[in-house]
């Protein structure tokens, strides 16, 4: 139940030799048979090393692509492409999910298997387009998939899909940051969004789940320091310093926004199970994050003293910044930021 090893013994120049051994774990073994009845034995298995390269644990090796080998001139030769009907049988469920625009093979391990199967069927270029239409992986994941396909001989190169050009795989992100009051969306007037000193709602609308960070500050200093291509793991940038998300005891049930002059505390969404928004609505093609605001929770620069101020008592300009970490993890890209000025309780 642990492991399987297979090698082929053959005779050459009067002595017996062994091919390089194949090694599989956790129930992934080898099925030796003459699949196409041509008098030559084939070895049927799964290419689990691809799964491992993409970060998969042994327990999920079953998601690896089909691999069929045969013995030829002292070597085990991959002949998987000679059995398109078997490749399509493994591909069928994932292809159906993509056709229905369900995010079936969008996790990187499954995406790797999906792409490998399509490449073996001679459909590699179309496979990228099909994945990009439904899946929203970050730039590092797309790059790792390209590297895996080349390393495991599914693809020779990417001359038609430039490794440096992610636009084909990751089109501009279509998302919105909206403010509403009394059930109506409030739009900009001049350089700001006017709000009465009363309860209002912040909504972020996305086509699919992505990490979201939202900050409110009393000045524009930190926002002006941001630049496209910046890595937010740099601690000199306090606007979205990682690991300083809002730590609420009531976990998203506070109807408030934290206001911090150094702007290192932020409202966040990592997943439907880990966030600080009041409500999350997820349906195919749309994710909506909602925060209802009846209080400003104002922190001093030390982040120690906290003052809760009802919005009815708030007046002035506040700077709201939202970032969706979509394309390159922890790096700010041009279509990932939205910034608005709230003009509260004053003409």
Binned, the helix content reads 10-25%
Give the overall pLDDT as a whole number: 82
Specify the number of helices: 6
Question: The biggest beta sheet, please?
Answer: 6 strands, mixed
Given as residue ranges, the uncertain stretches (5+ residues, pLDDT < 50) are 159-164
- The gyration radius over C-alpha positions equals 27 Å
Order of SSEs: EEEEEEHEEHHHHEEEEEHEEEEEEEEE
The gross shape turns out to be elongated
Q: What's the total count of β strands?
A: 22
The class by helix and strand makeup works out as: alpha+beta
Sheet with most strands: strand arrangement: 11-22-21-13-15-16
Report on the architecture of this protein.
With 347 residues, the protein is an alpha+beta fold. The chain is 18% helix and 32% strand. The protein is built from 6 helices and 22 strands. Strand 19 (295-299) and strand 20 form a beta hairpin. Helix 2 packs across helix 3 (108-120), helix 3 packs antiparallel against helix 4 (124-134) and helix 3 packs across helix 5. The protein is elongated. The N and C termini lie far apart (73 Å).
């Amino acid at each position: 139940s642990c492991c399987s090893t297979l090698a082929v013994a053959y005779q050459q120049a009067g002595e017996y030799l062994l091919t390089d051994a194949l090694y599989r774990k956790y129930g992934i073994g080898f099925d030796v048979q003459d699949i196409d009845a041509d008098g030559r034995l084939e070895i049927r298995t799964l290419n689990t090393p691809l799964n491992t390269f993409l970060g998969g644990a042994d327990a999920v090796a079953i998601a690896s692509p089909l691999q069929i080998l045969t013995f030829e001139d002292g070597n085990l030769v991959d002949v998987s492409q000679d059995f398109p009907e078997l490749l399509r049988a493994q591909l069928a469920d994932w292809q159906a999910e993509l056709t229905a625009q369900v995010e079936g093979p969008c996790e990187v391990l499954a995406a790797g298997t999906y792409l490998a199967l399509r490449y073996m069927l001679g459909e590699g270029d179309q496979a990228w387009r099909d994945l990009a239409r439904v899946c929203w992986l970050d730039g590092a994941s797309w790059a790792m998939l390209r590297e895996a396909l080349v390393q495991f001989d599914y693809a020779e190169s990417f001359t038609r899909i430039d490794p440096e050009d992610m636009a084909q795989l990751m089109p501009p992100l279509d998302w919105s940051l909206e403010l509403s009051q009394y059930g109506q969306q409030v739009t900009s007037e001049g350089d700001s969004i006017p709000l009465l000193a009363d309860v209002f709602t912040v909504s972020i609308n996305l086509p699919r789940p992505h990490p979201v960070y939202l900050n409110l500050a009393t000045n524009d200093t930190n926002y002006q320091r941001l630049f496209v291509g910046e890595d937010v793991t740099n601690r000199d940038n306090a606007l979205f310093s990682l690991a300083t998300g809002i730590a609420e005891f009531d976990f998203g049930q506070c109807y408030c926004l934290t206001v911090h002059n150094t702007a290192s505390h932020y409202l966040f969404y990592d997943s439907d199970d880990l966030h600080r928004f009041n409500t999350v609505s997820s349906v195919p093609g749309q994710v909506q994050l909602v925060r209802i605001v009846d209080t400003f929770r104002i922190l001093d620069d030390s982040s120690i003293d906290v003052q809760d101020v009802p919005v009815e008592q708030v007046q002035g300009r506040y700077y709201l910044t939202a970032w969706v970490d979509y394309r390159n993890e922890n790096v700010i890209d041009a279509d990932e930021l939205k910034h608005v000025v709230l003009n509260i309780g004053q003409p």
